[in-house]
Amino acid sequence: MGEIVKLRPEPRARVRSITEYHPPLGSRDGMRLDFNENTIGCSPAVLEVLGGISAGALTRYPEREPVEALVAGHLGVAAECIALTNGVDEAIHVLFEAFLDAGDELLLPVPTYAMYQVYASMTDARTLTVQAGSDFRFPFEQLIAAITPRTKIVVIANPNSPTGSTASMAQIVAMAEHAPRALILVDEAYFHFHGESVMGLMERLPNLMVARTFSKAFGLAGLRVGALIAAAEHMRWIRRVLSPYSVNQMALSCLPAAIRDTAYLNWYVQEVLAAREEFQAALDAAGMVRWPSRANFVLVRIGAAHAEFVRRMNAHGVMVRDRSSDPGCDGCVRITMGTREQMRIAENALKQVLADLRVGGVMV
To answer: Which CATH number fits domain 44-260: 3.40.50.300, 3.40.50.150, 3.40.640.10, 3.40.50.720?
Structure first.
């Protein structure tokens, strides 16, 4: 009797080639300046809604369309031009699934948000990256030069993470006009800290698309809700890929209260912007290399001691994010901006850690 061959189901070859992304979450008991979240919490109005959600409401499948209409009004776009998603991650995923095919190219300036490449690797398209220079400015000329007839999607995080750099409105318009057969996705996750949006240009440039999140300034990262905004002609294909129930009932219940409480949102944003200015001044006074940021974080070059710097900051109760593995970011650490009070605590920890790591003025 011959040898019995054990058969087992195998995943697609494309899935086997995907690099898994494991965010370094784990225990996060300190001051959370590592994931660019709201550092104090969402609007009290949201907590009030959460406390009033009934058991009956949780037995029903979520219905996103009425809330989409409210968010569309908030953003000043037509309801048929917006889809609420399970965070911006789902928006990216469904966009790539709907539009990227074999022979297509996704164009990315790097360093940037890692999940763009992860989701693109699930398709049969090719990803091309354009490395920013040592100043981390938006590599506009290099991106324009890299556009080919195969370019299907260009993704621009604006402001970008982990660098905090931005592309200008003129640069984004020029890219959209230069590549009319490509979709230009502008990920405005950090819009509230930047204050500039290309959303008003989409009627003139229908290949522009915008992603927004309610995880950052609004403080709803745990509810997982984002939005994709695009011309209706594109949204019809997005909706074919998008699950009708991917945004949960709690998120849909809380979102209207979050967007109505503009006073809380504006206060938090202004507090973060003031804290950013103070903290950047403290970094400069300490002789640290950092890059200008238009987001709620600052990228700092620590050098060879980056891992030890992160460990010691954590020991002081301040969690920061090592970004050394990002392209061009060797030795860099990203620090989220909280309130002024929080950042003064972080500044004291920073001074102590730097003093401990420096011998004769040199980082060890």
So the answer is: 3.40.640.10
Extents of the domains making up the chain: 13-39+263-363, 44-260
Per-residue pLDDT of 228-280, as tens digits, reads: 999 999 999 999 999 999 999 999 999 999 999 999 999 999 999 999 999 99
The confidence score (pLDDT) of residue 25 equals 67
Class of domain 13-39+263-363: alpha beta
Question: By CB neighbour count within 10 A (0-12 exposed, 13-18 middle, 19+ buried), where does 121 fall?
Answer: middle
358 vs 364: CA distance, rounded Å? 6
HEC per residue, 297-353: EEEEECCCCHHHHHHHHHHCCEECEECCCCCCCCCEEEEECCCHHHHHHHHHHHHHH
358 burial (CB, 10 Å; 0-12 / 13-18 / 19+) is middle
Beta bridge partners of 234: none
Instruction: For the chain, give the mean pLDDT.
Output: 94
